[in-house]
Write a structure and sequence with these properties.
This protein is an alpha+beta fold. Helices cover 64% and strands 13% of the residues. It contains nine helices and six strands, in the order H-E-E-H-H-H-E-H-H-E-H-E-H-E-H. It has helices at residues 2-28, 46-55, 60-68, 73-81, 88-95, 98-107, 119-134, 139-144, 158-176, and strands spanning 32-37, 40-45, 84-85, 111-112, 136-137, 150-154. The strands form two sheets. The protein has a four-stranded mixed β-sheet with strand order 2-1-6-4. Helix 5 packs antiparallel against helix 7 (119-134), helix 6 (98-107) crosses helix 7 (119-134) and helix 6 (98-107) packs antiparallel against helix 9 (158-176).
Length: 178
C-alpha cells in the first residue's frame, strides 16, 4: 500500500511538473546562449545555435568563435544534436535520486544559469521538458528548454555533457531494465 501511494505520488508530481513546464515554456525558455571557450565568450541567440545544430550552417560570429577556440564545428554539432532515448517516468525517478543529482551536478558544470544558482533544478526542468516532447533528449533541446532567459554553455566541455547524458541513459536501462 505504501509503495503504491509513493508511486502514485511520483506520478502526480511528474504530471504536475510537465503541465507547469508546458504552460510556462514560452515565458521561460532560453532566448540567449553565452557560449564560452576558455577566455572567449560569445552571446548568441538560441535560434542561431539551433539553426547551426539543425542545418550545419554557421553564423559569422559562431564561425569566428569556433575558429578562435580551435573547435571542430562538425564535432560540436554532433554533441548538440545526437539524441539519447529516455523513458519520461523513469527519467523523473532517476533525476530525483542520488545518482541523478550527481549527473545533474556534472552536466550543470557545462550548461548553467548565468548566476550559477539553481543549476540542478533548471537542468532537471529542461531535461524533463525535452524528454516529454519526443522521449529523447539532446543538448540542443536542453539549451532550448532551459527555464531562464539566458543559459551559459562551456563549449570546451560539450563532449563531457553528452557523455553524462549517455550515462543517464545507461543508468535508466540498468535500474529499470529498459
Amino acid at each position: 500500500m505504501c509503495f503504491n501511494f509513493l508511486g502514485m505520488r511520483h506520478a502526480l508530481i511528474l504530471v504536475g511538473s510537465i503541465c507547469l513546464l508546458f504552460l510556462s515554456t514560452p515565458a521561460f525558455a532560453a532566448e540567449r546562449v553565452v557560449l564560452k571557450y576558455g577566455i572567449f565568450r560569445e552571446s548568441l541567440s538560441v535560434e542561431e545555435l539551433s539553426t547551426f545544430a539543425q542545418t550545419g550552417e554557421l553564423s559569422r560570429s559562431l564561425r569566428v568563435n569556433l575558429a578562435l577556440a580551435r573547435q571542430d564545428p562538425k564535432a560540436i554539432r554532433q554533441y548538440l544534436t545526437k539524441p539519447v532515448k529516455v523513458n519520461l517516468v523513469f527519467l523523473d525517478r532517476v533525476l530525483n535520486s542520488q545518482i541523478g543529482n550527481i549527473i545533474l551536478a556534472q552536466i550543470s558544470q557545462v550548461i548553467s544559469t548565468p548566476s550559477q544558482r539553481a543549476n540542478r533544478q533548471a537542468l532537471r526542468a529542461a531535461l524533463v521538458l525535452s524528454a516529454s516532447q519526443d522521449r529523447q533528449v539532446s543538448l540542443i533541446e536542453i539549451i532550448k528548454n532551459y527555464p531562464t532567459n539566458e543559459v551559459e554553455v562551456d563549449g570546451d566541455r560539450l563532449e563531457r555533457a553528452y557523455r553524462q547524458l549517455r550515462r543517464l541513459q545507461t543508468n535508466l536501462q540498468d535500474l529499470f531494465g529498459l
